Amino acid sequence: MTDRLTRRLATALLCGAALAASLGPVAHAEEAPVAQERLETRPALARAFERLDTRGVVLLMDEGRWIASDAPRAFERFLPASTFKIPSTLIALESGVTEGPETVFRWDGQKRWLDDWNRDQTLVSAFRVSAVWVFQDIARRVGQPRMQQFLYDFRYGNAIAGPVADRFWLDGALRISAVEQIDFLRRLNEGRLALSERAWPRAKAVMLRDEGPGWKLYAKTGWADAPKPAIGWYVGWLEHGEGLRRRSYFALNMDMTRAELGPQREAIVRAALREMGWLPAAAEGKP
Questions:
Q1: Contacts with 74 (C-beta within 8 Å, 6 or more apart), sequence order
Q2: Who contacts 283 (Cβ-Cβ below 8 Å, separation ≥6)?
Q3: Is a pLDDT exceeding 60 seen at residue 158?
Q4: Quick check: 182 and 61 in contact, CB under 8 A?
Q5: What CATH number did the domain enclosing 46 receive?
Q6: For residues 150 and 88, what is the distance between their CA atoms, to the nearest angstrom?
Q7: What is the pLDDT of residues 249-286, one digit of tens each?
Q8: Which of 136, 164, 236, 258 counts the most CB atoms within 10 A of its CB?
Q9: What is the predicted pLDDT for the residue at 26?
Q10: Do the beta carbons of residue 286 and residue 210 sit within 8 Å?
Q11: CA–CA separation, 71 vs 255, rounded Å?
């Protein structure tokens, strides 16, 4: 290469660098602004627990806006108890253990403490009455190795499916926080879980708790006796707004120091949803 050609190439490179610097960073059309999400602590929401002489947290999330009555507790992990019936329902349908919501699980004749459990169940009825034996049967049929992989894929809490294959969500090592409950439900609704197209619509039909004009509520309660005090849960989401396209998520856990606190789990969440203007005031709720 001649000296003259070398000088021309160097000049061209310098001019190009100067032009790029003057134009600034290259903007990529496909890159959208990243939505910022913040968590707001609203202590007034904690008064519901104070009135009941117990401790707990109610966490709400709507369009990226997080609101917690107690931020530290929102990140504290507990046994999921029967709220695990949400991922368990998904797993049952995805794995083929059950074909659909109306698949029948035959009662084994063993008398259990709740009369509603002592009969044949469908996935719908078992979810509604929280029939533990049905979901234990599902866990055994799926098998622990495959169940463990589902928890990894779902990134569900600490994702420990053990030590006992059919009890890990009741008194085993599995733990999840209110924040993680909502994060899981959001990824579920956004189609970001490892699920087939056929499983999710069928599972969603099982999870419907209540509905009214312009809204639908999907939810599950939970009660874990293993820790002291016992822990109660109520988690899910509300679909509302135009075309029911808006989703407002919620996760509550509280210390269950006495039996009469059971109905208060849902009552506290509904009151918070009404206070935010997301749930109509007339929506009293199913018994």
A1: 39, 57, 59, 68, 177, 178, 179, 251
A2: 210, 212, 215, 217, 270, 274
A3: yes
A4: yes
A5: 3.40.710.10
A6: 9
A7: 999 999 999 999 999 999 999 999 999 999 998 776 66
A8: 236
A9: 43
A10: yes
A11: 16
**Structural domain includes residue 19:** no
Of 149, 114, 157, give the one whose Cα is nearest residue 134.
114
Question: Tokens 């409950």 sit at which residue?
Answer: 181
Domain total of the chain: 1
Flag whether 7 is in a domain: no
Supply 157's token pair: 């809490």
Please state, in angstroms and as integers, the Cα–Cα distance from residue 199 to each residue in 99, 100, 133, 138, 277, following that order.
9, 8, 22, 15, 32
Structural domain contains residue 24: no
Q: Which domain holds residue 207?
A: 35-275
- The answer to whether 216 and 238 have CB atoms below 8 angstroms apart is yes
Distances (CA, A) of 203 to 119, 138, 186, 248, 266: 22, 14, 15, 19, 21
Does residue 233 lie within any of the structural domains?
yes
Backbone angles phi, psi at 188, to 5 degrees: -60, -50
82 part of the active site: yes
Q: How far apart are CA 233 and CA 184, in angstroms?
A: 15
CA dist., res. 150 & res. 147, Å (int): 5
Catalytic residue among 82, 130, 177, 248: 82
Query: What strands lie across the sheet with 230-240, from one edge to the other?
Result: 38-41, 65-68, 56-62, 246-256, 230-240, 215-224, 208-212
> Strand 38-41 vs strand 65-68: parallel, antiparallel, or unpaired?
parallel
> Quick one: pLDDT at residue 286?
60
Tokens 């199913």 belong to: 286
35-44 pLDDT, tens digit per residue, is 789 999 999 9
Question: Whole-prediction pTM value?
Answer: 0.87
